[in-house]
Specification:
The longest helix is centred in the middle third of the chain and has 22 residues. The chain has 649 residues and is an alpha/beta fold. α10 links the parallel β10 and β11. Helices cover 39% and strands 22% of the residues. It has 3 domains: 216 residues, ANL, N-terminal domain (Rossmann fold), CATH 3.40.50; 188 residues, Rossmann fold (3-Layer(aba) Sandwich); 167 residues, GMP Synthetase, Chain A, domain 3 (2-Layer Sandwich), CATH 3.30.300.30. α9 packs across α10.
Length: 649
C-alpha cells in the first residue's frame, strides 16, 4: 500500500498505535456507547463491502442524510474506500431541496438515518432519477414499507462481512487504488444567492489543511469533540471527520438535536466549534437564568462579569495584570466563571472556534473574558475551511487573524479577499462557468468577502463584498456588521439591515421567543403566540433599547458613524430556512428577504407609521399557510440617546 494519501489509508495506517482508543461515542436511549478505532474501522470495511455488493464504484456518488451518527461517518469513509464520492445532505432539508442535491449529484445510493429521511428520499421521486437504493440505519416505523427499493444498514453490513469472509482483501484492494488527487467528498454550498453548488474537494485538499490545523492547535488523541452540526457543512466534515482521523481524538455524537446542550455538559469537550448562533443561544440561556436568580446572585454576577470584561482577556492572553486584579479574577473564577462554564458545558474546553459567519465583537469578548480560549476562524467550503487562524496570544476581537499555515492571501483592487492554498477546491460539479468565476487563471480563489489588513497583518472582514455599500450621503454601510451587533443582545434572534443607496439605515428584527417570552412573563405581559408577543409595545420598546445601544457603538466608529439605524420593524414571524429566508447554515438570504418583504421596506423608507404584509409560511408538519400582519415602524432618536436595559448582562 502506498503512503497514507487518502483517509481510508490513513485509518488503516493508524491502527497499530490507536486500535483500542475511543474513536466515536454515541448516546442512545440515554446511554453513551463507544466505538474503538478498530471497531469503527471494521464497521467501515463492512459497509464498504456491502456497498460494493450493491455496485457502488469509483467516481459514483453516495448520499448520506441524517444527524451525526458514527455509522453515517463510517458511510463517508466506506464510500471513500471504494473510490466513490460521499455527498452529505442537510438533514433538515425539505424534499425539494434534497431532490436538487441528489438529482444534481446523481446519487445512485442513499444512506439515511431514519424513517423521516427515508420518507423524504422517497418523495424526491423523479427529481433524482439515478437513485436506485435507500439504506436506513434506524428501522423504527419502516417494517411495512416496500423493501424492494429500501433495506437496512444492518443487513448491508451483514452482507459486507460475509463478502469479506469470502474475500478478506476485497476492501483493501479498493483502498490501494485511491490517490491524493482523487475527489474525497462533494459538499454543497448553502445557496445564499441561488442554487447550491457542488464543491469537489480532493484528498490533497482536505488532508493537507486538516493536518496543518491539527498541528496549529496541538490536537491529539486525548482531545474530544462534540459533533452536532450538520454533516453536510464543511466545518463538521473537517473538524469531526478529517481532523479526527489525523489526530485520533474522540468524536461524540449527541442523542438528538433536542439533547445537544445536555450532552455537551456530559461530554465537556476539550475542542469545540460552533457558528455564532450557538454562542448567541448559550448567552441567551445565561441571561434568562440570571434574570430568574435572586438579587444577591444577580449583583455578584454583574460585579464579577464587569471585572472579567476589564482584565479577563488580558489574563488569558498572558498580558501584564496587577496582582490585586488577578486575585479578584481568581475569586471570580471560583464563584462565577467556573460554575458558569460548567453550566455551558465548556469547563474542559482547551481550544474553541467560531466559524460560518462573523461573530459580534461583544459576544466574542464575553466568552474570552471568562477564560475560554475561543478563537475566530475565517474560511469557506471552497478553501477546505481554512483561510485565517488566530494564534494563541494574538487574538483580536475585530480581526480573524493572519493567514492559516500554507495559505496566501492578497486583496484585489476592489478590496475583495483572494486566497491561494493547498485547500482550494478542484471544481464545482457540472458547473464550469461558476468554477471559472470562482478561481483566477493563476489559482487564486475569489472569496466574495471584502477585507482589510491591520498593521500586524491580521485580516479584518468587513462584509460580503457585494453587500458593502454606501448611503446616499456617502456613509459606509456594512449590513452584516450591524446585524451582528444587534444579535449580541439575548432578545434579538435574527436581524436584517438595509441601507445601500438609501438615505438612512434600517433593520428588520426577529425577537428570541425564549428570552423575550421569559422577560414578558416576569412582567405579567400576556401573549398567545410569537406574532402577538412581537407586536406588543413593551417588546418594541425593549428592541428599541437594543437598537439604541448599537447606534451608540456605531457613533463611536468614524467609518460607520453615518450608518446608525433610523427606523426598524419587529417582524411578525421568525425567519425560516423552510421559507427560503435563511440557508441551512442559518445565513440570511438578504436579497430574497428584501424582495419578499418589499412592502415593509417601502413603508420604512416612505416614512409611514405602519406596514402591512401577507406572508406564505411552511409549518413544521409541512402544511402551507398564510400570515397577515399590520406592523408598527419604530423611529429611533439621534445616536447617543441610549435607553435603559433591564436585563442582566
Amino acid at each position: 500500500m502506498s503512503a497514507a494519501d487518502t483517509f481510508p489509508k490513513l485509518l488503516d495506517a493508524a491502527m497499530a498505535r490507536r486500535a483500542g482508543r475511543p474513536a466515536f461515542r454515541e448516546k442512545r436511549l440515554g446511554i453513551w456507547q463507544t466505538w474503538t478505532w478498530r471497531e469503527w474501522r471494521d464497521d467501515v470495511h463492512a459497509i464498504a463491502a456491502g456497498l460494493h455488493g450493491l455496485g457502488l464504484g469509483r467516481g459514483q456518488t453516495l448520499a448520506i442524510v441524517g444527524d451525526n451518527r458514527p455509522l453515517l461517518y463510517g458511510a463517508i469513509c466506506a464510500a471513500q474506500c471504494l473510490g466513490a464520492i460521499p455527498v452529505p445532505v442537510y438533514q433538515d432539508a425539505v424534499a425539494e431541496e434534497m431532490g436538487f442535491v441528489l438529482g444534481h449529484g446523481e446519487a445512485r445510493i442513499a444512506i439515511a438515518e431514519d424513517q423521516e429521511q427515508v420518507d423524504k428520499l422517497i418523495a424526491v421521486g423523479a427529481r433524482a432519477p439515478a437513485l436506485e437504493r435507500i439504506v436506513y440505519d434506524d428501522p423504527r416505523g419502516l417494517r411495512d414499507y416496500d423493501h424492494a427499493r429500501i433495506g437496512s444498514l444492518a443487513s448491508l453490513m451483514e452482507a459486507g462481512r460475509a463478502a469479506l469472509a469470502r474475500d478478506p482483501a476485497l476492501v483493501e484492494r479498493e483502498i490501494a487504488l485511491g490517490e491524493g488527487g482523487d475527489v474525497a467528498v462533494m459538499l454543497y454550498t448553502s445557496g445564499t444567492t441561488g442554487q447550491p453548488k457542488g464543491v469537489m474537494l480532493t484528498y490533497d485538499n482536505v488532508l493537507t489543511t486538516c493536518a496543518n490545523a491539527v498541528a496549529f492547535d496541538r490536537l491529539g488523541e486525548a482531545d474530544e469533540i462534540l459533533a452536532y452540526l450538520p454533516m453536510a457543512w464543511v466545518g463538521d466534515h473537517v473538524f469531526s471527520y478529517g481532523e479526527a482521523l489525523i489526530s485520533g481524538f474522540c468524536v461524540a455524537c449527541p442523542e438528538s438535536g433536542a439533547t445537544v446542550m445536555n450532552d455537551l455538559k456530559e461530554i465537556g469537550p476539550t475542542f469545540f466549534f460552533a457558528p455564532p448562533r450557538i454562542f448567541e443561544n448559550l448567552l441567551t440561556q445565561v441571561t434568562i437564568r440570571m434574570e430568574d436568580a435572586s438579587a444577591p446572585k444577580r449583583a455578584m454576577y454583574r460585579f464579577f462579569m464587569d471585572h472579567a470584561r476589564r482584565v479577563g482577556i488580558d489574563i488569558l492572553d498572558g498580558r501584564p495584570v496587577g496582582a490585586a486584579d488577578r486575585l479578584l479574577y481568581r475569586l471570580g473564577e471560583w464563584l462565577v466563571y467556573a460554575p458558569l462554564k460548567n453550566v455551558l458545558g465548556l469547563g474542559r474546553m482547551r481550544v474553541g472556534y467560531t466559524a460560518g459567519e462573523a461573530i459580534g465583537p461583544d459576544l466574542f469578548a464575553f466568552y474570552r473574558s471568562l477564560g475560554l480560549n475561543l478563537k475566530q476562524l475565517y474560511g469557506m467550503t471552497e478553501a477546505s475551511v481554512f483561510i485565517c487562524l488566530q494564534p494563541d496570544g494574538q487574538i483580536k476581537v475585530d480581526t480573524v487573524g493572519p493567514a492559516a499555515p500554507g495559505v496566501e492571501i492578497r486583496l484585489a483592487d476592489s478590496g475583495e479577499v483572494l486566497v491561494r492554498s493547498p485547500g482550494v477546491f478542484k471544481l464545482y460539479y457540472k458547473n464550469e462557468d461558476a468554477t471559472r468565476d470562482a478561481k483566477t487563471a493563476d489559482g487564486w480563489l475569489r472569496t466574495g468577502d471584502a477585507g482589510i489588513f491591520d498593521a500586524d497583518g491580521h485580516l479584518r472582514i468587513v462584509d460580503r463584498a457585494k453587500d458593502v455599500g454606501r448611503l446616499t450621503g456617502g456613509a459606509l454601510f456594512a449590513p452584516k456588521y450591524i446585524e451582528n451587533k444587534l444579535k449580541f443582545f439575548a432578545y434579538v434572534r435574527e436581524a436584517v439591515a438595509f441601507g445601500a443607496d438609501r438615505d438612512f439605515a434600517s433593520a428588520f428584527v426577529n425577537i428570541d421567543l425564549e428570552a423575550v417570552g421569559n422577560w414578558a412573563e416576569r412582567r405579567g405581559i400576556a401573549y398567545a403566540s410569537y406574532q402577538e408577543l412581537a407586536a406588543r409595545p413593551e417588546v418594541l420598546d425593549l428592541v428599541a433599547d437594543c437598537v439604541a445601544r448599537v447606534n451608540a457603538d456605531l457613533a463611536a466608529d468614524p467609518a460607520l458613524a453615518g450608518s446608525a439605524i433610523r427606523r426598524f420593524i419587529v417582524l411578525h414571524k421568525e425567519l425560516d430556512a423552510d421559507d427560503g429566508e435563511l440557508t441551512r447554515t442559518r445565513k440570511v438570504r438578504r436579497g430574497f428577504i428584501a424582495e419578499r418583504y418589499a412592502p415593509l421596506v417601502e413603508a420604512i423608507y416612505a416614512g409611514e407609521a405602519r406596514g402591512r404584509i401577507a406572508t406564505d409560511v411552511t409549518f413544521e408538519d409541512g402544511r402551507k399557510g398564510r400570515i397577515e400582519a399590520d406592523l408598527e415602524v419604530r423611529d429611533m432618536p439621534a445616536a447617543g440617546a441610549v435607553g435603559r436595559r433591564e436585563a442582566a448582562e
